[in-house]
Amino acid sequence: MGLLSLAIWLPIFAGLVLLALGRDTNAPVTRWVALIAAVAGFALTLPLVTGFDASTAQMQFVENLAWIDRFNVRYHLGLDGLSLWFVPLTAFITVIVIVAAWEVVTEQVHQYMGAFLILSGLLIGVFAALDGLLFYVFFEATLIPMYIIIGIWGGPRRVYAAFKFFLYTLLGSLLMLIALIYLYYKSGGSFEILAWHELPLPMPAQTLLFFAFFAAFAVKVPMWPVHTWLPDAHVEAPTGGSVVLAAIMLKLGAYGFLRFSMPIAPDAAQAWAGFVIALSLIAVVYIGLVALVQNDMKKLVAYSSIAHMGFVTLGFFIFEPLGVAGGIVQMVSHGFVSGAMFLCIGVLYDRVHSREISAYGGVANTMPKFAAFAVLFAMANCGLPGTAGFVGEWMVILGAVKFNFWIGLAAATTLVFGAAYTLWMVKRVYFGAVANDDVKALRDINAREFAMLALLAAAVLWMGLYPKPFTDRMNVSVVELLEHVAQSKL
Predict the structure, then answer these.
(1) Sequence-ordered list of residues with C-beta below 8 angstroms from that of 337, at least 6 positions apart, any chain
(2) Which whole number is the average pLDDT over 237-248?
(3) Residue 302 has pLDDT above 90, yes or no
């Protein structure tokens, strides 16, 4: 087994062991086993980054074995600059989620920890898969643990939210399955994704394939108007579920555009780019306005995620190197920032048991350490220079202005709306006089919570102040992708 297989299957195996052997009576042991497995999984992803050759767009760390011989299905894994950073990001967020649940989850601990470890392995599998059927299996399998996480540990309307999440994402993926089968026969019986990139497909076929993939990936991002499942899922999900959903699962759809839609149907992608740009700008502007009127902190950050992911799809479909690279950087930075925002809401909810903004006020007076972290993450969510939230947005805006000044101007409005809804929430929750007895009784974060937030703060600042390691490793792959798209197959 290579490093990628170990990164995928170690957390899955550990999760299955916890499900099989874990009991609430030995919860402390369960927590430590889960943490050790998560840290080991993250450690396995570090050599992928340090050993990555940034000078080539070729797949690296490749594993290619026979899986289902009869249908020529391969167990084919590999990473390039487009997918590299999502593997350590997934493993890192899993460690944070395990730590976040340490004292909070007290029932069915083994199932909770096991579900997140299995989900971590499946998500890494999606980013590493180079066989179409293998990708689809991992892509769909991620729904199961997340459905369970929301449905069991979620809020009062958790069953409704879990069903809505599952149905939206499953129905979108069925059209993708039809597209994969078509490509299998068109390529002479191969599920190799990289071979599909070279197929000379006529425009009608490309258009149908583009929209089949679009149905799956747009729901996952989620793009307007198929975004309505996300606020419900976030509000009802436990804190860890919201963190993984925002930090990793939304990225599956955007990654799908890079790996499938753009290289397999390049002419259709260019022909329909205006359509995708229009939907992206609606997400940036309209959803930003919707976020402004939210009273629930989780809903506000959920709508904020939709707006930020609109930036990602905008960056991809302007077909500028700065825009595409900026979109990928935005995906990674949003993983850190949105995950941190949801963790901060979780810290408050664990103490007050309310997500309503009106239930707080003056939190900085009673929780100064926590407020410092929360305000830092809020600034990153606004796109403050020096934080991770700025780099990707700035690159996308630069690329958009180069593509079309008015599109760039419309995209830049997200910085205004982002600052408006984020700072409005920060002002009402953290600053001013202590609003009520609940806030007066708050205790500042403990060592576990401090360590968890400090790790995320370090990541947000590192990426904001020194993004070069991130951009260097993706540049060659981005340029090759755009050159491939520019070469018409017609």
Answers:
(1) 377, 380, 381, 387, 388, 389, 460
(2) 86
(3) no
Taking alpha carbons only, the member of 481, 459, 479, 480 closest to residue 470 is 459
Determine if the peptide bond prior to 225 is cis (ω within 30°): yes
Query: Has residue 269 got a pLDDT over 70?
Result: yes
Distance between CA atoms of residues 457 and 463, nearest Å: 10
* pLDDT of amino acid 490: 52
Task: Point out which residues pair with 79 in neighbouring strands.
Answer: 60
Q: What share of the chain is helix, strand, coil (3-state, %, to 5)?
A: 75, 5, 20
Q: What is the CA radius of gyration of the chain?
A: 21
Q: Are 122 and 145 in contact (CB under 8 A)?
A: yes
Which of 295, 353, 352 shows the shortest CA–CA distance to 362? 352
CB-count exposure of residue 119 (10 Å: 0-12, 13-18, 19+): buried
> Quick one: pLDDT band at residue 95, thresholds 50, 70, 90?
very high
List all residues 6 or more positions away from 369 whose beta carbon is below 8 Å from its beta carbon: 444, 445, 450
In tens, the pLDDT along 303-337 reads 888 888 888 888 899 888 888 999 999 999 988 99
pLDDT level of residue 24 (50, 70, 90 thresholds): low
Is residue 473 helix, strand or coil? helix
Amino acid, res. 327:
G
Determine whether 270 is exposed, middle or buried from the number of CB atoms within 10 Å of its CB (0-12, 13-18, 19+). Answer: middle
Q: Where are the alpha helices (DSSP H) in 221-272?
A: 229-236, 239-244, 250-256, 262-264, 266-271
- Residue 300 to residue 290: CA distance in whole angstroms: 8
| CB contact at 8 A, 54 and 81 | yes
Sequence letter at residue 17: V
Contact 52, 60 (CB under 8 A): yes
The model's confidence at residue 406, banded by pLDDT at 50, 70 and 90, is confident
SS3 7: helix
Q: Which residues fall within 8 angstroms of residue 405, CB to CB, at 6 or more apart?
A: none
CB distance 321 to 475 below 8 Å:
yes
Q: What is the pLDDT of residue 186?
A: 85
pLDDT in tens, 36-45: 999 999 999 9
Q: How confident is the model at residue 457 (pLDDT cuts 50, 70, 90)?
A: very high
Spatial separation of the C-alpha atoms in residues 282 and 268, rounded to whole Å: 21
Specify which residues 76 forms β-bridges with.
Answer: 64
pTM of the model: 0.90
